[in-house]
Amino acid sequence: MSESALQLWHGVLFRQQADLTFESISPHVAEWTGLEAPRALEAVHPADRAKIDAERATFRLRHAHTWRITWVEQRRRQTTTGYEGYWENITERIHLDQELAQAHWKDTLGTATRRLVHDFNNLLTGVLSLSDAYLLKVRADNPAREGLQLINQSARQAADIVQAIGGMFREAPGRRAYENLAQLAAGATDMLRRVIEKHSPVKLEARQESIPVYVDAAELKQVIVSLGLTLTPPINLEAGLDKKEASLRISGVASERSQAVPAAEAFARRNDAMFVAEDNGYSFHFPEADFSEADRQARSILLVSADSDQAFQVAELLRRNSYEVVIGGKDLLRSPDYRFDAIVELLEGGDSLLSDADVIFRRGMSEKEMLTALSAVFDA
Fold first, then answer.
1. In a domain, 263, yes or no
2. Are residues 22 and 81 located together in one domain of the fold?
3. What angle is formed at CA 341 by the lines to CA 337 and CA 344, rounded to 5 degrees?
């Protein structure tokens, strides 16, 4: 396998010995792994390591510095001394497949639910009308009156639930506006009380009556309900405002996250929020609305850093200066959820790992130096 062939190939060609060590491998695999090319297998995600000795397999590579995930498809064949084959980067294909599958399922579920809600509401209307009519005719001392009252009461409660579910589907996500997080949390809490098991406690604590945020209210309520349904009661919601940061925590014992968490992460990205998933629940963190968000032309920044604590501090600094900031890896550039105006790399020291970073922030830079460097990019 010649060096020129390795450079021309758009994926990664390799030759392995019987023990899977590489005799040769395309050097640009280091862009996917953050490691020297011969150490590429060290970047295989721990959950996928059992797949690396298969002739046909799909697994993840995790960048050693940015933790960016690259999905690769492996094809190889056995030789007299070991193996030879290639890795193809299929990250974009995986993302598109996931997005299409989720979009199709949400559309199908939404259509089916709206039809079922409509049909069920028609049935309830008949039950309510008949029970109201019979209650007017049945005397107070009639033994059947108590049963009719129970039927009427249950039908009204069911109608309230149907109305609430229908309301969620009538509120179309996709539009951000100024909202009170305390009120949004109260509405989501009421919905959770209706849809989880009867008598299961769902409590809300709002530390302030008014918590201004700039969010997509319809999507947030849907996400809260989806997350709440993955928790085992008792479920507690807590909304508050502290030092210009609005927070919403949903606590309980997590049981299943496969569908709810990606949707919550996507919502957070679209609404300049941070989402955290833990064993005992979930939390959202929003910047407090200053009522200039809708009027200004936001400049969106991708902040890449190996130090998450430092990244959060720098992101907060930039957000205070009217920038929209997302912390992540370069793979987000392919996501349809984002449109970035600049890429900023935060370095502890050494050389840049990104060839296309617009700005490099180094540890020790002052706020003024950072903002000046960014202004130079946007004003160029």
1. yes
2. yes
3. 100
Task: Compute the C-alpha angle 180/186/187, nearest 5°.
Answer: 95
* Residue 32 structural domain: 3-89
Query: Distance between CA atoms of 112 and 116, rounded to whole angstroms?
Result: 6
CATH number at residue 19: 3.30.450.20
Long-range contacts formed by 357-360: CB under 8 A, 24+ apart: 357/304
- Could you tell me if 28 and 46 lie in one domain? yes
pLDDT tens over the chain, length 380 residues: 444 444 444 588 999 999 999 999 988 899 899 999 999 999 999 888 989 989 999 999 998 888 888 899 999 999 999 999 999 988 877 877 666 666 656 666 666 677 777 788 888 888 888 888 888 888 888 888 888 899 988 888 888 777 766 666 656 566 788 999 999 999 889 888 877 766 678 999 999 999 999 998 888 988 998 898 888 888 999 999 998 899 999 998 876 555 688 888 888 887 889 999 888 899 999 999 888 776 555 578 888 887 767 787 888 788 777 777 888 777 777 665 567 788 888 887 777 777 778 888 888 888 888 888 888 887 76
Residue 294 lies in a domain: no
Q: How many domains does the chain have?
A: 4
